[in-house]
């Protein structure tokens, strides 16, 4: 359902320019600390992983002093090229909290069980400026999860692609941890429509966990293994009245398809056989923040269990 323009920045039918982006940026308020929440947690894991900075993002304009954020990744100690490699990413959208903390929780509590069976590369918070503002976009009003492409204008996306470039051909799987929230339709969807000069189209927010598989490379058995693991932790989103989720047809229990590479999605960057984007619903009356984090951990573990079984 398309609705008339109602976002308070911009004019109907006109994409934003520099003035509108500056107005939008002025509204973004720092609400939490990437250093305290993420970098401190990464440092605690230094005795178990090889910790590396894979770059930094740096932002400033006439109204904002320079802010710099180091981008950190955890890499398996004792990396063996003979083992399958799995990429875990969180915080591509900084406001999707359980993706960040799910990646960190997995690294802290579960990763050791897979030592010697897989190589792990974990980027727990891809978009730190947005993490601090509880925002979907980066400083430039760009969605990192639509900008994983050559010559990306999104610093966060470009840095992650540089990190994984030397490992192309080695990845067995990539799981990208996300959330779908009520603010997707109260704030971020309308903002996107206004930014692009389009009408906002509402699809409704699914109540529960679901997965996004790759249209060009569907792996139904892999997706089902994740769904079965997560279903022990939290509920799976049902189909809406049209038989879909967020405007896409339901292809299996809790699974939809997106064209990952075509859309510039993070889950399309590795050319891995097995890829998935998780989506938990933290605003559900049937789920707690802890359940959302546990669901992300369960999804990562199910990914690794599936890869380990397939490599036998």
TrEMBL record:
Domain Peptidase M14: 30-312
Top-level taxon of the source organism: Bacteria
GO terms under biological process: proteolysis
PROSITE patterns registered for this protein in UniProt: PEPTIDASE_M14 (PS52035)
GO molecular function: metallocarboxypeptidase activity; zinc ion binding
Similarity comment: family membership: Belongs to the peptidase M14 family.
Protein name as annotated: Peptidase
Organism whose genome encodes this protein: Rhodoferax saidenbachensis
């Amino acid at each position: 359902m398309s609705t008339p323009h109602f976002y308070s920045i911009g004019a109907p039918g006109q994409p934003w320019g520099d003035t509108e982006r500056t107005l939008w940026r002025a509204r973004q308020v720092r609400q939490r600390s990437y250093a305290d929440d993420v970098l401190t947690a990464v440092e605690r894991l230094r005795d178990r992983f090889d910790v590396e900075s894979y770059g930094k993002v740096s932002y400033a304009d006439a109204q904002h002093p320079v802010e710099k954020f180091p981008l950190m990744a955890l890499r398996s100690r004792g990396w063996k090229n003979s083992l399958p490699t799995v990429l875990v990413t969180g915080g591509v959208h900084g406001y999707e909290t359980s993706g960040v903390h799910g990646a960190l929780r997995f690294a802290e509590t579960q990763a050791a069980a897979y030592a010697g069976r897989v190589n792990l590369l974990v980027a727990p918070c891809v978009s730190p400026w947005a993490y601090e503002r509880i925002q979907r976009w980066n400083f430039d009003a760009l969605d990192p999860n639509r900008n994983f492409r050559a010559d990306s204008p999104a610093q966060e996306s470009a840095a992650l692609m540089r990190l994984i470039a030397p490992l192309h051909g080695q990845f067995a799987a990539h799981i990208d941890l996300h959330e779908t929230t009520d603010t997707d339709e109260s704030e971020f969807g309308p903002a996107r429509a206004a930014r692009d000069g389009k009408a906002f189209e509402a699809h409704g927010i699914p109540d529960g966990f679901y997965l996004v598989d790759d249209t060009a490379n569907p792996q139904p058995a892999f997706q089902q293994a994740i769904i079965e693991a997560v279903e022990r932790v939290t509920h799976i989103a049902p189909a809406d009245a049209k038989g879909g989720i967020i405007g896409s047809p339901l292809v299996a229990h809790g699974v939809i398809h997106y064209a990952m590479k075509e859309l510039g999605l993070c889950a399309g960057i590795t050319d891995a056989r097995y890829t998935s984007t998780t989506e938990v619903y933290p605003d559900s009356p049937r789920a707690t923040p802890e359940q959302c984090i546990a669901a992300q951990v369960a999804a990562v573990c199910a990914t690794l269990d599936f890869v380990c079984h397939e490599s036998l």
